[in-house]
């Protein structure tokens, strides 16, 4: 069947692809990406309290992934809102925070072996803050040039057809006899975006699926691969290559592109983790030397969980009761490690050096 961008792509081929996908360029790039990912996995183990990474880096991924969909918020607003997600924040920031929530919850499910079609529905439901189901017959979505209204792609439609294609997708991920896991991730990312199962939230759900599968496959231990930054910088190429798989089955260019993104992102994230570890060690030594009365390793690690903190965080962690916790944070502020400000009736504290480190953009 000839591909027609204006007609629903109900004939989207099942996985595995009939075309050769393990070509020489693909395998060469796969090796480079695998090595970079192994270094990232090892670097993650250098941070003794994994909450430091699980909180901080996914917030950046959440912001970048949402930015691709033109859901914009500042990184500072995001870090502040993460102090208390129930506190009123602007709608765009709340939407980005839901990405982190979806990533956290699905990560816990996948750790127990639960990557499934149902989980993808749950992820999209969290992202959209409502129960979602697959698009039904007649429920088309526009994918194309919003200015000229040129249609570039029309995904399959109908709940039963979509469900079947997603079951095939999950089966391909778990099949014992198949290509390298990183190649599978790239193939499945295209397939998910081509199926486009939901009326909204497909892009973000698909980007979370990337991370979940790498964790399921044992290539990552925690969700810290900041792949959305790479896709933002190469947004036009990303969409062009997706379309070229649909129209011409050009798998090689697409897979190499995605694997290059894994390599670049893994190396960058490894560097970021090493910088956080170095800053954590320096802060531990500073507090131990200058503030021995209040020093505990748990206290210093807690102010690295995310840039902003408050008294109740110390209380909830069992580090100190409220009055003593306030004294600890004031001492850290007097030492120049934290800065504080009043937000409403509550004082919040910011780890200045960590905030600056996390605000540095992706190269």
Q: In words, what does this structure look like?
A:
It is a single chain. The chain is mainly alpha-helical. It has two domains: 24-269, Fic-like fold; 291-359, Arc Repressor Mutant, subunit A (Orthogonal Bundle). Helices cover 60% and strands 6% of the residues. The protein has helices at residues 24-44, 51-68, 75-81, 91-111, 117-128, 159-174, 181-195, 202-216, 227-233, 235-248, 251-290, 297-302, 311-316, 322-334, 352-359, and strands at residues 143-144, 151-153, 308-310, 338-343, 346-351. The strands form two sheets. It has a three-stranded antiparallel sheet. A two-stranded antiparallel ribbon has the order 1-2. The longest helix is centred in the C-terminal third of the chain and has 40 residues, at 251-290. The radius of gyration is 22 Å and the shape is elongated.
Q: Could you tell me the CATH topology label of the largest domain.
A: Fic-like fold
The CATH architecture assignment of the largest domain turns out to be: Orthogonal Bundle
Low-pLDDT residue intervals, each spanning 5 or more residues: none
How many individual helices? 15
Ends: how far apart?
Answer: 42 Å
- Shape from CA axes? elongated
| Number of strand segments | 5
Main-sheet strand order equals: 3-5-4
Number of domains: 2
Structural class category: mainly alpha
Q: Sketch the topology as an H/E string, one letter per element.
A: HHHHHEEHHHHHHHEHHEEH
Q: What's the multimeric state?
A: single chain
Task: Write down the Rg.
Answer: 22 Å
Query: Any idea what the CATH superfamily of the largest domain is called?
Result: Fido-like domain
CATH class of the largest domain: Mainly Alpha
Helix content: 55-70%
């Amino acid at each position: 069947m000839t591909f027609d961008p204006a007609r629903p792509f109900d004939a989207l081929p099942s996985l595995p692809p009939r075309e050769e996908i393990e070509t020489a360029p693909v395998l060469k790039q796969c090796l480079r990406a695998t090595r970079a990912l192994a270094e990232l996995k090892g670097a993650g183990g250098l941070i003794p309290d994994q909450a430091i990474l699980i909180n901080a880096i996914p917030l950046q991924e959440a912001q970048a992934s949402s930015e691709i969909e033109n859901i914009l918020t500042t990184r500072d607003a995001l870090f502040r809102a993460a102090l208390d997600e129930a506190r009123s924040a602007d709608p765009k920031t709340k939407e980005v925070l839901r990405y982190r929530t979806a990533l956290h919850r699905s990560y816990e499910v996948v750790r127990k072996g639960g990557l499934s079609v149902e989980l993808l529905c749950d992820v999209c439901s969290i992202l959209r803050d409502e129960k979602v189901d697959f698009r039904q017959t007649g429920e088309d979505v526009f994918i194309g040039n919003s200015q000229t209204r040129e249609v570039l792609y029309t995904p399959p439609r109908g709940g039963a057809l979509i469900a079947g294609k997603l079951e095939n997708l999950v089966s391909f991920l778990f099949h014992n006899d198949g290509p390298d896991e990183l190649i599978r991730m790239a193939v499945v990312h295209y397939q998910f975006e081509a199926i486009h199962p939901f009326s909204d939230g497909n892009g973000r759900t698909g980007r979370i699926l990337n991370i979940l599968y790498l964790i399921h496959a044992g290539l990552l231990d925690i969700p810290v691969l900041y792949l959305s930054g790479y896709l933002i910088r190469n947004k036009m190429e990303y969409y062009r290559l997706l379309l070229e798989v649909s129209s011409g089955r050009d798998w090689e260019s697409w897979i190499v592109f995605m694997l290059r993104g894994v390599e670049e992102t893994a190396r960058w994230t490894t560097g970021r983790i090493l910088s956080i570890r170095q800053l954590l060690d320096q802060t531990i030594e500073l507090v131990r030397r200058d503030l021995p009365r209040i020093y505990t390793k748990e206290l210093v690690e807690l102010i690295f969980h995310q840039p902003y903190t408050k008294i109740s965080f110390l209380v909830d962690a069992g580090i100190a009761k409220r009055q003593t916790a306030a004294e600890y944070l004031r001492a850290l502020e007097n030492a120049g490690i934290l800065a504080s400000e009043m937000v409403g009736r509550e004082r919040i504290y910011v780890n200045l050096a960590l905030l600056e480190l996390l605000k540095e953009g992706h190269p």
